């Protein structure tokens, strides 16, 4: 395993981490999670990602029980939660100071830890002043309940405003952002956030590196019955890949699959290694519903050296979506 600083903070996280969205409590029970999490931990993964909204808190309960059952010392791993969708009541939603505090306390209980290493604002809240949210996060840090706070799917402008508020009022600014990033979703990480890496030392914990499984090649010939796109409640995700745009992307996946085969790796390894080639990516969050998936994803670290400048050029020719303002260092 390799480790990178979370932006310019002193926290070093494994370049591959384990997330729980869709899987924990949806596709996996506690015994399955125990096997996956122990395998990840033994392989050197030291960051586990979660959120209050994942299976209405059940995902955090399962993760907390498993970590507690395995007896993992908290000084050897980092765990996260995210606040925004806590329930269907008005005060259980958004980023008000009250909900931020309530969500943190609830996550601590579910995860069975004394503090959250990373706490994310899961989405921006247009109904709450950013100063209120920044101050609420700062207070949690002052109370020792949170170590680092950050954002997820915020715009560069919103993150910049949060930093300005923190600077003006002597508050703790956000350390990291959790954006979607993969071969089909690049603009925010590669272009929009470019000034933030330099100006604020922004770290990134990217999600959906395999585009919800599309970049594994599993959908090249249809939708398997046991796949994420076939799950009840995720019809919106399936629709993204069955419309005209999705079908065009699927054809590119087939071409990427052939390219990966030519250089002796799988498209899964090519896609994960491609994300890891970006030095502004602190960690790539993996999602796995089976042990064999996780074990295979871990091998992607060995594929990074296969992505030579020539291969990167071939990838860019296929996807043809590089942001005009992007600078992918070393490629």
Could you walk me through the main structural features you see in this protein, from its secondary elements to its overall organization?
It is a single chain. The chain has 331 residues and is α/β, with parallel strands linked by helices. It has a single domain (3-213, 273-303), classed as TIM Barrel. It is 41% helix and 12% strand. β5 (78-83), α3 (97-111) and β6 form a beta-alpha-beta unit. α2 packs across α3 (97-111). It is globular, with a radius of gyration of 19 Å. The two termini are 22 Å apart. The relative contact order is 0.13. The model has no long low-confidence stretch (mean pLDDT 93).
Largest sheet: 8 strands, parallel, barrel
On the 0 to 100 scale, the average pLDDT is 93
Inertia-based shape: globular
Q: What's the β-strand tally? A: 10
Distance between the termini: 22 Å
- Taken together, the total number of domains comes to 1
CATH architecture label name = Alpha-Beta Barrel
**CA-based gyration radius:** 19 Å
| Helix/strand order | EEEHEHEHEHEHEHHEHHHEHH
Please, what is the oligomeric state?
single chain
How big a fraction of the residues is strand? 5-15%
- Give the strand line-up of the largest sheet: 3-4-5-6-7-8-9-10
Structural class: alpha/beta
CATH C-level class:
Alpha Beta
The fourth-level CATH homologous superfamily is NADP-dependent oxidoreductase domain
Q: What is the CATH topology classification name? A: TIM Barrel
The helicity comes to 40-55%
Poorly predicted regions are none
């Amino acid at each position: 395993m390799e480790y990178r600083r979370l932006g310019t903070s002193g926290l070093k996280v494994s370049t591959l981490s384990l997330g729980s969205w869709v899987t924990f409590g949806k596709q996996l029970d506690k015994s399955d999670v125990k096997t996956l999490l122990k395998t990840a931990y033994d392989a050197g993964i030291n960051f586990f990602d979660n959120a209050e909204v994942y299976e209405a808190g059940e995902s955090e309960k399962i993760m907390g029980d498993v970590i507690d059952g395995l007896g993992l010392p908290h000084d050897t791993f980092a765990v996260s939660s995210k606040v925004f969708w806590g329930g269907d009541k008005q005060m259980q939603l958004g980023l008000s100071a009250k909900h931020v505090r309530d969500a943190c306390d609830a996550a601590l209980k579910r995860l069975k830890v004394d503090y959250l290493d990373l706490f994310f604002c899961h989405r921006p809240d247009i109904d709450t002043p950013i100063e209120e949210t920044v101050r609420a996060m700062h207070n949690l840090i002052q109370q020792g309940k949170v170590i680092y706070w950050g954002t997820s799917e915020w715009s560069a402008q919103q993150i910049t405003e949060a930093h300005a508020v923190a600077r003006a009022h002597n508050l703790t600014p956000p350390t990291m952002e959790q954006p979607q990033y993969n071969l089909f979703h690049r603009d925010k990480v590669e272009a929009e956030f470019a000034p933030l890496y330099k100006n604020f030392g922004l770290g990134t914990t990217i999600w959906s590196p395999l585009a919800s499984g599309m970049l594994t090649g599993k959908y090249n010939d249809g939708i398997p019955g046991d796949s994420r796109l076939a799950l009840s409640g995720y019809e919106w995700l399936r629709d993204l890949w069955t419309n005209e745009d999705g079908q065009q992307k699927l054809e590119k996946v087939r071409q990427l699959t052939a390219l990966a085969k030519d250089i002796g790796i799988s498209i899964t390894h090519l896609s994960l290694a491609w994300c890891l080639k970006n030095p502004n990516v602190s960690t790539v969050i993996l999602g796995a519903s089976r042990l064999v998936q996780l074990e295979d994803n871990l091998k992607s670290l060995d594929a990074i050296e296969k992505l030579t400048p020539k291969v990167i050029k071939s990838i860019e020719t296929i996807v043809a979506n590089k942001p005009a303002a992007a600078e992918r260092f070393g490629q």
